[in-house]
Amino acid sequence: MKKSFKKHAALGLAAVMAVSTFAGCGKQAETTGSSKAGSAKEASNSKGGDRMTISVLGIDWGYGPVQNSDMEKYWEDLFDVNLDIEWINYEDYDQKVNTLIAAGSTPDVIQISKITSGSYYYPIFTQAIDANLFVDMTPYLFNDGKGVAETNAVMKNWTDAMWDQARYNGGIYILPRSKAESGQNSGIEVRKDLMEKYGYEKEPATMDELKEWLIGLSNAATEGEGKKVYALEYFGDNFMDDRIKAFAVAYTGQTDWAVDEKGEFQYLQFKDEYIDFLNWVKDLYDAGVIDPEFALNNADTSKWKAGNSVAYLAPWYNWNQSADLTSNRLFDESTPEGYKAWCLMPVKGPKAYTVSPNYTDVDSCIAISASCSEEKIEKIMDIFNGTEETYPGYNNLMSDGVEGTHYTLLEDGTKDTTDEAFKKARQDGYVGAWNQIFLKTDADQVKDKFMRDGAKRASDENIQKVQEIKDFVYSNLEETGMKNEIQNLQSTTYNSQWSVLTDDVNTMCTQYVMGQIGEEEWQTFVEGIVNSADYKAIQQEFKEAATEK
């Protein structure tokens, strides 16, 4: 999940001061490590004999897990280790972890959260890395065929591209917990019942066809249903939002940042072709099939799941509806029965298909404090990278917990978690969320969402369709190699000035779509940014960082 950049930035000065101190004073860093080792020894003696203690800081996404739960104890016994773990509520996590990083006193293992841009490598963290406060895990992961990444049953399937997403300045300082599905926000999800009812079953293949298809079906549904049915669920004034970005990709041929033929970094919204995307949105607006007050963030006005829109741009696997349309009800409970979900194949634009690459395929990750001993680092690399092959029953434990404590196994093989004692134990133990810090199997949303056993299984037709979409998205990304080119790069000017430099961009996009400014005004505005000293400095700094990488 993405976190706010503001909390990271607020502690920037403190981090710089702290990192500078530690970078120039090795003895102080050693003292910190000795202190942690002493604390670990005390914890070991008090909690479980001679077991090694590993201190951990993880994110609580609002479930309220407790320390020393039955789940935690089970993990400790499985791995023969003491876990001194603290779960911090997500609202406070950034400030907590950044304060510890700035002070050079992090636990042995910390979960790293994303900032708004989608990066795990943010200024405070990278400053600490540069000061040697975190472990470069490369030697442990890759070692002439004997490293963890080369032998682990999950990690050995990861490509170089996956590991590139975990690198900073040539080192690997974040340890991915699994690989997410690629190109997630490339799904044009639609109301199939409306397609069938109003004769729009032929799917559009291009952006122009999609526009006419959306306008036609929106108008037909509005007239036939006796209420306004918009073309797209869209609200807010963020034109880089995932609910619309893939359409911009189709017109510009790139995601957020790309490198042009001259080797210069270019931002998507400042490409010449971006105006063509804005015109595409403007045509929908002028046709009256987008909420006229979309900029006011009216989230419910055009909500697709409430039956208020024909389509919306979303993850290509989030239209998993059971074959009976009710056992897994995708639409709001207030909607009539009979609503059917479907997803169009990505359509072709002038420069690319509507396939939007993830900022990163790393779904969550951890970092290891450099104060850990060699023995502890090796232990962490062992137990935090468990698999079904090394610990039989691991996958079931990761997802469902312990039989008899968190569920009852029924005769048909399903798990019953309805007992109130089970519910409390699952919440206290944070069952199903340890995959934030422990390794889990890679995402397979077709299997996990569409191919469920029992009543929640989707229809064969829908399963076939989602597999076709997945295959296309993956092959397209492999063919184009499209990615965000500033992934894990650092620019001082970008970190300090980007939000100021681009503060009015989305406002200008909104005004253009609503006809309040023209193309000349838009171009003049963009030229003012791309010709500014700050934008040129950002381009140069990213270029230099890429060369160093």
SSE blueprint and pairings:
Elements: H1 5-10, H2 12-23, H3 26-48, E1 53-60, H4 70-79, E2 82-89, H5 90-103, E3 109-112, H6 123-130, H7 138-141, H8 148-151, H9 160-164, E4 167-168, E5 171-172, E6 175-176, E7 187-191, H10 192-197, H11 207-225, E8 230-232, H12 245-252, E9 257-259, E10 265-267, H13 274-286, E11 309-314, E12 341-344, E13 365-368, H14 374-383, H15 394-400, E14 408-409, E15 415-416, H16 420-429, H17 445-450, H18 460-480, H19 492-501, H20 505-513, H21 519-530, H22 533-548
Parallel strand pairs: 1-2, 1-3, 8-11
Antiparallel strand pairs: 3-13, 4-5, 6-13, 7-11, 7-12, 9-10, 14-15
TL;DR of this structure?
42% of the residues lie in helices and 11% in strands.
pLDDT averaged over residues: 91
E-strand count: 15
Q: What structural class do the secondary elements suggest?
A: alpha+beta
- Shape descriptor reads globular
Cα radius of gyration in angstroms: 25 Å
The largest sheet, given as strand count, sense and whether it forms a barrel, is: 5 strands, mixed
Distance between the termini: 26 Å
Structure description:
There is one protein chain. The chain is α+β, with helices and mostly antiparallel strands. The strands form five sheets. The protein has a five-stranded mixed β-sheet. Strands 8-11-7-12 form a four-stranded mixed β-sheet. Strands 4-5 form a two-stranded antiparallel sheet. Helix 2 packs parallel to helix 6 and helix 19 runs antiparallel to helix 22. It is globular and about 70 Å long. The N terminus is likely disordered.
